[in-house]
Design a protein that fits this description.
Among the domains are: 89-165 and 406-437, Dna Ligase, domain 1 (2-Layer Sandwich); 211-348, Nucleotidyltransferase, domain 5, CATH 3.30.420. The chain is 38% helix and 30% strand. The protein is built from 13 helices and 20 strands. The two termini are 34 Å apart. It is α+β, with helices and mostly antiparallel strands and 438 residues long.
Length: 438
């Protein structure tokens, strides 16, 4: 039986696991919510955020949804989906429009015009979709720090805009996978954003901080300044690479290397770790040797992949430091290693510090993304200009996993038309999105 209380449902598609989070509103206040269920299952058919076997991925999503349904006691039929993708681009642009010869209040049409002015600087490839359009900074008559320009009076409106683009096939495959499992996709969000929302405090976002989420197949980064994300990036390195390193150096089967890694994450002392293997002699591993192997991979990640992504290449621009999340954040000594490299504060995010109470057993760093998905939905409700997403029709295209061949032909034709129209059509979609919000 389907039940439709006032709920928020997030579904995270990751390399290591599929997670479904369900939050219910307090009837007395839409701002107050309670986490009432989290379902999860290991991911199958997904590597580095990419779906490589659709059938296996669909089964994984169904299993995670069923797990959440068993906890909340009713069927789920829709969700906002967070996911990772390769070849993610985060580009800043700026725009300015005149409000008139005399000062007057800013209207929705003015915001549309300034977004269009900022977007005309960009050229979005035909095979990509602008998944998020994020106003980073507004200025009225040269005065920055404007949170929401609507209704404020001035003669000139300026803005800095961040546009996050993702390959269209990634988006369509995620939508097809989730909807084939019986869940309607209500919205899409790139995982580094939800990880940041789940990990960072409001103060850290304001003074400047970096969310660093190290998952199974990828590492997501979101750079916050003045309360807004100024850059998003995904590095195709994660916990699976650590497992492969342990297996290669210590000559272990992959499943035993994964077991060793997880035991290291929860080890409370330096006692040798014994690994039993069917049909083979028991192996005894020195945890310090294993941690040194992990440290080598993490140092490479931080120095060769994270450091070059920092805006202006100066970590001191982010006095709030690094906030770590994801399963690999449980590695002993990871805070000291990262702090030694960048010389700024480092802390590991703790879901128990969140104002949303997490169920027992689901309150570690690997579930930060789930919390962030709920905060993402709440943030969009409170301030529609915080994250401006494209209309659903732009990425749904009228077809899904169950679309007919004719539907697919129509979709391909529409795709060609969109490519031909280029930026003009994209700007029209942004305007449609703004009109939907107000």
């Amino acid at each position: 039986m389907f039940k439709e209380p006032d709920t928020l449902i997030g579904l995270g598609v990751g390399t290591t696991k599929i997670a479904v989070i369900v939050a219910e509103r307090d009837p007395r206040s839409r701002e107050t919510i309670q986490i009432i269920g989290i379902g999860s299952t290991p991911s199958l058919g997904i590597r580095k955020g990419l779906i490589v076997n659709l059938e296996q991925a669909v089964r994984s999503v169904r299993t995670a949804v069923k797990d959440a349904e068993n906890m909340v006691g009713y069927a789920l039929n829709q969700a906002v989906v967070s996911f990772n993708a390769g070849d993610v681009s985060s580009v800043m642009s700026s725009g300015m429009v005149a409000l008139g010869l005399r000062a007057r209040p800013v209207e929705v049409e003015d915001v549309e015009r300034v977004i269009e002015a900022a977007q005309t600087e960009l050229s979005i490839p035909a095979n990509k979709i602008a998944l998020h359009t994020i106003p980073v900074r507004y200025s009225i008559d040269g005065n920055f720090g404007i949170e929401d320009p609507l209704g404020m009076t001035g003669m000139r409106l300026e803005m800095e805009l961040q546009t996050i683009t993702v390959p269209t096939p990634y988006v369509q495959n995620i939508v097809n996978c989730v909807e084939a499992s019986g869940i309607k996709v209500d919205g899409l969000v790139i995982k580094p954003i939800t990880s940041a929302l789940g990990a960072l405090t409001e103060e850290e976002m304001r003074i400047g901080a970096v969310s660093l989420c190290i998952g199974g197949g990828t590492t997501g980064l979101t750079f916050y300044r003045d309360g807004r994300p100024v850059k998003v990036a995904i590095v195709p390195i994660g916990g699976d690479h650590i497992t492969n390193d342990l297996a290669s150096v210590l000559r272990l089967p992959l499943n035993k290397a994964e077991e060793l890694k997880k035991r290291l994450f929860v080890a409370e002392n330096d006692d040798p770790i014994k690994l039993d293997s069917k049909g083979q002699q028991q192996r005894t591993i020195d945890p310090n040797v294993a941690l040194e192997i992990i440290a080598c991979r993490l140092e490479e990640l931080f120095t060769e992949h994270v450091a070059p992504l920092i805006p202006e290449h100066d970590p001191k621009l982010f006095p709030g430091g690094f906030i770590l999340s994801g399963g690999v954040a449980k590695t002993p000594g990871i805070e000291d290693l990262l702090s030694d490299i960048f010389k700024i504060p480092v802390r590991v995010a703790d879901p128990r510090d969140s104002y949303h109470q997490m169920p027992p057993g689901r309150d570690d760093t690997s579930y930060i993304n789930a919390i962030g998905t709920i905060r993402y939905m709440l943030s969009k409700e409170r301030n529609p200009y915080r994250f401006i997403d494209p209309p659903v029709s732009l990425w749904r295209g009228g077809s899904g996993a169950h679309g007919s061949r004719r539907d697919n032909r129509d979709k391909n034709e529409r795709s060609k038309q969109r490519s031909g129209q280029g930026m003009k059509n994209f700007l029209e979609k942004i305007k449609e999105s703004l009109k939907e919000l107000f």
